[in-house]
Fold each of these.
Amino acid sequence: MEMEKFVVNVDFQKWANVLKLYKEGMKIKIDKMKIEKGKELNTLDSWFQNELPVAIQEREEKHITKPELCKLMKWKLSRGKFRPRLQQMVESNPEELVVSASKKAFKCIPNLKKAVEELTVLKAVGPATASAVLAAGAPEHAAFMADESMQALPGLQPLQYTVGFYLQG
């Protein structure tokens, strides 16, 4: 499959070009939004890309906090389909459970299946949200299961929000 060749044999310059496309795509998306919503997404995306990974890496044991998980959900929902119930549900998770589940998940890396399963014990955290947590804290092992990226991969339609589907990408 052509996609496998790209992932295995890709060079740094190709990935740098892909990253530029992400930034351009986000700008286009933000420009199409209402001004306040666009500003919010820009701020949240910058936090997710730059601040959250550093915060997770600096901890003695990698994990995410409840406020970070709630902010991550807000970022994820502001990028795509808004589902207000998901935000409420993720906010109902106890801090201790968020920390313990995410510590367990990061300890499972590089076993992505097990890592995702550890995170999906949290309310409103499915494979896509779990992948965002893992991508922030272990980008060398996990990619975010963004709708756009999954839909762009040949042979992966229709999109399914399952661990098995995520692992195919």
Amino acid sequence: MSAAPRRAARLRSLRWKIVLLVALACASMALTVGLLVHESVLRRSLHEGSGKALAALAQARDEAAATSTEGPVRTPEELPEALLRQVERDGEATLYENEPPAPVFWAARKEGGKLYAVEADMTADLLTRQALDRHMWKYSLLTLGVVVPATALATELPARRLRRVARTARRITAGDLDARTGPMRGGDEVTGISAVVDSMADSLQRRIDTEQRFTADVAHELRTPLMGLVTSAGLLPEGEATDLVQDRVRVLRDLVEDLLEISRLDAGAERAQPGPVALAGLVRDAVARTGLAAHVTERDPAVVETDPRRLDRIVSNLVVNAHRHGAGPVEVEVSGRTVTVRDHGPGFPADLLADGPRRFRTGTAERGRGHGLGLTIASGQAGVIGAVLDFANAPGDGGAVATLRLPPDGPAPGDGPGPD
């Protein structure tokens, strides 16, 4: 995965969703509180400004009466229209104007046919409110700057524990049945998920171990009487019935040998014995030993470091499977370090493409959809030599395509020869 998708995946993680949610909650709370405080302070300021203006009007009238002067008498042209309308209606009115050069609060009263009015300067009040707004914005941003990183740090530990559980689950899915999350401190939901994943892995490993032991035991128990059956079938007089019996005995012998090979692959007892191999020549020989028709083409074939016996087994099984469950012509292409086997039948079933080979499933109608032991063994042996075996269906006229890609440096040498 490239850097950009990794960053996108991290941003979509539960941790960053929690951080975003906390940030949104803090921002919403700060905005709500800020608006409430701003409106409350504004209402109080307007109330105080109205009282201040009315008090100034009363004081100015009293001073004018004491000195026998006109005092705060104004002409209508000097007053705002909104203030005049209120005075005409109520006899007394106040009006706040936040206009240049300075905000003022008007107070006016009509008395004895005269219009009295004063204005109170509200500049200090406006500056106080603006300073309060700035401080609220500043400290809200400061709070976000503290809360968001703190939330990110606080969610790192549970996110790391969840990633640990996810890595364990992926390893189990990939076939590592020994993978465990291990004990975790705390009694939260993450600890519970970890315990369930480990318990599931233990149960799955027990079931698979039981299946492997059963397969190995059945194959070993059948091997001894089968050898006697093969010997006895060889002593029968020639005839059509004898040929039929010997053919069925050979099929049974091959099945038991396949079961034994699968049990060794399941137990991890197989070890590669690599050596230099001319890939094109080995593929031609493997195809020839099957006795089946296949057209082999070469394109820059390589000399590879691999186990020739296991590679021969893989190619043979792929060619046999193509003939048994596909349709001719069967084509085998050797290109560099890649071997491709294609038939022109109906192609691999969907469950094989989705889940890979499964034993005791064939592509024939009488045995159900899927495949038999051949592809299971081929996949297992590919893993032993470090190769990758992919299955697909060809576009256009269709057909099953099995592609074997050998590693660039070959498999690591085994500890010794695997059991035969």
Amino acid sequence: MTGRTFRASGRAARLPAEADSRKARRRRRLRQIRLDYWLYVMLIPGVLYFVIFKYLPMWGVLLAFKDYQPFIGFAGSPWVGFKHFERFFTDPSFGLLFRNTFIIAAMNLAFFFPVPIVVALMLNEMRLALFKRIAQTFIYVPHFFSWVVIAGITYIMLTTEGGIVNEAIAGAGGDKVNFLMSESWFRPLIVLQMIWKEAGWGTIIFLAALSGVDPSLYEAARIDGANRWRQMMHVTLPAIRSTIVILLILRLGNFLDLGFEQIYLMLNAMNRDVGEIFDTYIYTNGIQRGLFSYTTAVGLFNAAIGLLLIVAANKIAKRFGEEGVF
């Protein structure tokens, strides 16, 4: 028999074995699905959520490359290429929007991101369980307030007409400050609102990471003479470093996504020059003026910047020995 005949006979002999192995793998997979049946059932709502609200709307980005007319419809609207992007980049307001969005996003990243870590470390150091639970409850509560409520509380506290803060300033002999109309106070107020509302909720992940730190590491550090501060610096923080890096990367992915509600509720005619961002610009031009294709291009640009940031941050994290997100 020739070599070709031997190879053909060997291949023919392997085919039934490969078919049997595929059947065996399929049976094992079906058996595993039957064993974890309810887990897959519980997975269905999450999958449907992402398919309906995340993946299907992706077709809407095609509006950025069309001159969409509601009466003509999506399919009948003509393609215009990068016309809307060129219009946006040459618009005089582009520089203002990018500067305002970038500054507020950078302030949020610099001042808000470390706060949940610090609060989680402080809560982790508490030894009285009852006081710890009470403190956690109080710092979690603001997360469940809507931004309308937060803006209302801010107005009540800072207004010059009977606001608690201004009344205290006047009572101390100072002049009332118009925080709500001031350009210099707009961005700090946005950051402070974010810290008050979301810092407590952000501690949940870090507290979960802290609960997984091996207690024997603290015992070894105490034997070596490390005080509480050195234990935190050399044991606690290195143990949760990967969690911090992953959350930082995810945060950079939403770097320019500041949230429409908070900024819109705090905007007025006096602070618009420092508070107008991409999200509010999209609302005023897309919803109020009906420029759907143009504002879709603006939103796509915003999302593209976030994608570039998350990819760059992930590569930098891997270069420094961290796992990264992907």
